[in-house]
Amino acid sequence: MTITQLVPPGIATSLGQRFALSAETLDSPVTPNAVFREWFAQQRRTNRYDVQRIPFSELVGWHFQDSTGNLVHESGRFFSVEGLRVRTEWQGRGASWSQPIINQPEIGILGIVVKEFDGVLHFLMQAKMEPGNIETVELSPTVQATRSNYTGVHKGNAVHYIEYFRPPRVSSKVLYDSLQSEQGSWFLRKRNRNMVVEAIGDVPEHEDFVWLTLGQIHQLLQQSSLVNMDARTVLSLIPSFAEDGPSLHSTEHLLNRLTEIKAMRELVQSTIPLSDVEQWQHTEYEIGHESGHHFTVIAASVSAANREVTSWTQPLLAPAEQGLAAFVVRRICGVPHLLAQARSEAGVLDVAELGPTVQCQPGRALTLPAAQQPRFLDLVLRAGPGQLLYDTVQSEEGGRFHHAGNRYALVEVGEEFPVDVPEEFLWVTPGQLTGLLRHSNYLNIEARTLLTGLGAVSALNGRYGS
Predict the structure, then answer these.
(1) Burial degree of 126 (CB within 10 A; 0-12, 13-18, 19+)
(2) DSSP-based three-state secondary structure for 89
(3) Each residue of 376-401: pLDDT tens digit?
(4) How much is the pTM?
(5) Which of 95, 287, 339, 403 supports an S-S bond with 357, CB 3.0-4.6 Å?
């Protein structure tokens, strides 16, 4: 690919201004939109792969332990599927259950390399196949690797560009770096290192990677199942919102409220043998809940042309239905606020994180008694096109989940929606949420995807801030 440089250098100086300029650049001579579309279509055509569901007995390198029934890899690395018993209590309402859960204690790297071409920051993005992706190849970060991957436990090819993220990093400088959680309902205390680094000097090209501006990526975020989960969480670190007025609550007050909820809410997690999990049935092909809800654990055989390892078998978690994650958005004194919920999930690290207003599997949720259904679910399901600021279906982690997709929505409401809300809900501005992402375990991954989507909507409407 020929790189053409046309934009005069030195337009933006501060980091915020540099990202704002990149967000305003909706097309680029480095990779014109038409060139990207053809390149990406070609990636999906030529990077063939095959995923077949197989019985557990045909897994290679994986086995169920005799003593626990846990599904583990012979290396002792990668991840395992274990049992978890959970007990919760909040405001006099309690619940307890057991379930399978993925235990992957190692911390991987999700990272994007950025570089200026004549004054405009571009992002080095990868076309990557994951076995569970809804749309096979999706746009991923520069690096998306577990520690087992980048240290060579898989005995495959080296991870491209990993040297920009690991010490001594002589060819890059770190712009953003924090540990962020992943799906608390399916992972046990799982975190990955989210990073944005700026390249120093020339960056070698590779046919599976492409340079895009933030504005180009924002346009792609309007499409379903194109920008993958790992890219979305890294992009959420980049400040995208100018505060144009006062927030309802100070950040100190928000932190106090969240801390108080964590202190008062009970969440007890106990790992147990997978064979001791109750109400889950184990067959030759799957482990599933007797109700048919939640998810199943399956086994898959995978072959791929452009992965570090070209063929393998592995377990995957397959959700029973498409999920829903939505923020209610309301202007308070003229300033957009999001209604966040302090959510406790089975595998969460620190009792609760801020999540969307509504986050559930709606089919299952609607089978519950009305008093037990998620608050504001009916409002989100009734929202018309005029209320939907953002509405797409996005894939979740295709390396661990099979065809896991969530509908992500931003639902705008008017002054008729009350400012006073139940105490597990908090009105927060987008800027406040972005500030919390400098730290770990404040926002769950569904909230981060929605924050990235809101940043894209704001930028495309000319309201990107620094």
Answers:
(1) buried
(2) strand
(3) 999 999 999 999 999 999 999 999 99
(4) 0.93
(5) 339
